[in-house]
Write a structure and sequence with these properties.
By secondary structure, the chain is of the alpha+beta class. Helix content is about 15%, strand content about 35%. It has helices spanning about 1-5, 100-110, 135-145; strands spanning about 10-15, 30-35, 50-55, 60, 70-75, 85-90, 115-120, 150, 160, 165, 170-175, 180-185, 190-194. Strands 4-5-6-7-11-8 form a six-stranded mixed beta sheet, covered by helices on one side. It is globular and about 40 Å long.
């Protein structure tokens, strides 16, 4: 099983396709959720989850109003260190305005000085390994440079299409001073705190 093989401290999931009465049960992990509003009665869609090891001091973080993103968030409280925040953020479909992506990220980075925001940004840019740039990618790249945040991407694509491969799953880091590793396994970004 993926969790046994990689032993992640925090698991960030998107597109959980869960309804509010559903949860993921994983031994030794506590979980937090967001659910897509106005789901079809026939097919569940969207949703995010953060699963964090029970032995890591943590709590759920209340998020500000977001324009379009679905997000779950936790605060990691390590003794004698500032709190660190871990978010899962899911960007709306590509037809949405790119400004929603940067607006929501700006709201999230205002919460604290130490953060990792991960998720499917649907933002293509050559800086993180895409073959081309789209409007969302250009907006995110410019925003990151202006805001002093770092965009991390895995070395291989996270989405494969019929005739293309691209990297749309990203980690956005703001002053995250704790040691951590990010790696990619089967289009999953794995976060491990060292």
């Amino acid at each position: 099983m993926f969790v046994n093989e990689h032993n992640p401290d925090v698991i960030l999931l998107q597109e959980t396709h869960l309804r509010p009465n559903q949860k993921i049960y994983l031994a030794n992990y506590y979980s937090y959720y967001s659910y897509r509003k106005n789901q079809s009665p026939l097919h569940a869609s969207g949703g995010t989850a953060v699963l964090i090891k029970n032995n890591i001091p943590h709590n759920e973080l209340n998020l500000p109003n977001l324009a379009a993103a679905e997000a779950s968030a936790t605060t990691i409280n390590i003794k004698n260190k500032d709190p660190h925040h871990s978010h899962l953020k899911l960007r709306p479909p590509p037809s949405s305005q790119a400004s929603f992506l940067t607006f929501d990220i700006e709201n999230l980075i205002q919460i604290s000085t130490n953060q990792i925001i991960c998720g499917d940004c649907n933002a293509h840019h050559i800086s993180w390994g895409c073959n081309n740039c789209n409007h969302a990618g250009d907006a995110l790249y410019a925003f990151a440079n202006n805001a002093g945040i770092e965009i991390l991407s895995p070395p291989t694509p996270t989405r494969y299409g019929v005739n293309s491969a691209t990297t749309i799953d990203l980690a956005i880091v703001k002053s995250f001073l704790m040691k951590f590793t990010l790696s990619l396994s089967s289009a999953r970004i794995i976060t491990r705190f060292c």
